[in-house]
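Entry:
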Amino acid sequence: MSLTAGVVAVQGDVSEHGAAVERAADAHGRDVDVVEIRQSGTVPDCDLLVLPGGESTTISRLLHSEGIAPEITDHVGDGKPVLATCAGLIVTATDAADERVEPLGLVDVTVERNAFGRQKDSFEAPLDVAGLDDPFPAVFIRAPLIDAVGDAVEVLAAWDGRPVAVRDGPVVGLSFHPELTGDSRLHDLAFFGDET
């Protein structure tokens, strides 16, 4: 049976995430149809969801104004997986530490926007991630910092002693951009991690 993977397409690296999901699905012999989400009505048909990076205040505003936000909450409530990267992590957090962002409260973390600096401070680092045999080449671009995690949140990776990858139920949240690497192991971990 083919899976439907939705990529929230209001901002961010939509096609790159779609390609990474396709590679991860292919590695498991699964067929996947990638759809772009710009308005309400699409999320309920999705088996998997990606919330890419971008500008968190803009993404938050559009998710709520277009009626997509409650559909994402229902998706997670049904136990369906979500991968939220960079600004996507900020939007899914319980506390975005920014009154301009209306967070979805799906990942029990407090985040600080642009904590790793501005665009010019972007960097790539080999990251040890729980569940992966070899380091992941994490790309940090205006990345948020996870300040605090709830008791039920699993920290999957840390950089400089601070969490940068977490799992809260069916949601995997990343401070960085896995879609920019050509390495689909984190999409695999988020969506097919329970398949051997």
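The radius of gyration is 15 Å.
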